[in-house]
């Protein structure tokens, strides 16, 4: 505790980095990193992320608890029309919309996080995605540099169409009770964006 006390400032607080830097050789990077491990944060990188987050304005997002416990498909389900994920007593069952395929990958999860966050912030069931496709992609954190090509825009629109057309059933099966709720992700949708002209305003 003495080493921590010496790091305290006048307000009695101390930097996260200072506390963790001496714990268990945190600053030592592994000698060899496997290809799989290269995709994961080291402990020091995790601390750096915490420090950066503590120094910035909070960017709060929301996600339905059951969707966080039972996430959407990660890989392409192909021609399957139904997907189920179970986590203890919780289950999520997603069905593809009429003439559509199931959503998959990171984009639908990102879209759902945006939907949940906007619904909480606006307290409205009707959400406006934006005046243009490129502007909406920037809201999702997909910049023109990393995802502004036409192929990426087409992928975003395809996954939006899949997700917003799908229906979801959320189930809780306890020892003495059973609960279920079913709904379309979106009761109604209108998409007027043109991938050939991503900055064009909506009609």
Overview of this structure, please?
The chain has 203 residues and is of the alpha+beta class. Strand 1 (82-87) and strand 2 form a beta hairpin. The model is unreliable at 1-7 and 19-30 (pLDDT under 50). It folds into 2 domains: 2-55, no CATH class; 65-184, no CATH class. The protein has helices at residues 2-7, 16-20, 43-55, 65-69, 106-122, 133-139, 144-147, 150-165, and strands at residues 82-87, 90-95, 167-173, 178-184. Helix content is 36%, strand content 13%. The protein contains 8 helices and 4 strands.
Give the topology, please.
Elements: H1 2-7, H2 16-20, H3 43-55, H4 65-69, E1 82-87, E2 90-95, H5 106-122, H6 133-139, H7 144-147, H8 150-165, E3 167-173, E4 178-184
Antiparallel strand pairs: 1-2, 2-3, 3-4
Helix pairs in contact: 5-8
What is the string of helix and strand elements? HHHHEEHHHHEE
Rg calc: 22 Å
The spatial strand order of the largest sheet comes to 1-2-3-4
Give the domain tally. 2
Question: What structural class do helix, strand and pairing data support?
Answer: alpha+beta
Mean pLDDT reading: 77
Helix content: 25-40%
Q: Give the percentage of residues in beta strands.
A: 5-15%
Instruction: Provide a count of the helices.
Output: 8
Low-pLDDT segments: 1-7, 19-30
Report the biggest beta sheet as strand number plus sense, adding barrel if it closes. 4 strands, antiparallel
* Beta strand count: 4
What is the molecular shape? globular
Tell me the distance between the termini: 63 Å
């Amino acid at each position: 505790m003495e080493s921590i006390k010496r790091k305290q400032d006048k307000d009695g607080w101390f930097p996260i980095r200072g506390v963790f830097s001496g714990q268990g050789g945190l600053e030592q990077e592994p000698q060899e990193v496997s290809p799989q491990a290269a995709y994961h944060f080291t402990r020091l990188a995790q601390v750096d992320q915490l420090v950066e987050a503590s120094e910035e304005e909070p960017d709060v997002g929301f996600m339905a608890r059951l969707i966080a416990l039972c996430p959407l498909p990660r890989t392409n389900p192909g021609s399957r029309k139904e997907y189920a994920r179970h986590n203890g007593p919780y289950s999520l069952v997603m069905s593809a919309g009429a003439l559509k395929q199931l959503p998959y990958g990171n984009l639908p999860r990102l879209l759902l996080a945006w939907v949940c966050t906007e619904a909480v912030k606006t307290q409205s069931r009707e959400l406006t995605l934006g005046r243009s496709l490129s502007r909406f992609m920037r809201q999702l954190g997909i910049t023109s540099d990393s995802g502004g090509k036409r192929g990426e825009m087409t992928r975003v629109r395809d996954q939006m169409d899949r997700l917003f057309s799908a229906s979801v059933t959320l189930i809780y099966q306890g020892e003495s009770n059973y609960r279920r709720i079913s709904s379309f992700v979106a009761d109604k949708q209108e998409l007027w964006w043109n991938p050939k002209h991503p900055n064009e305003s909506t009609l």
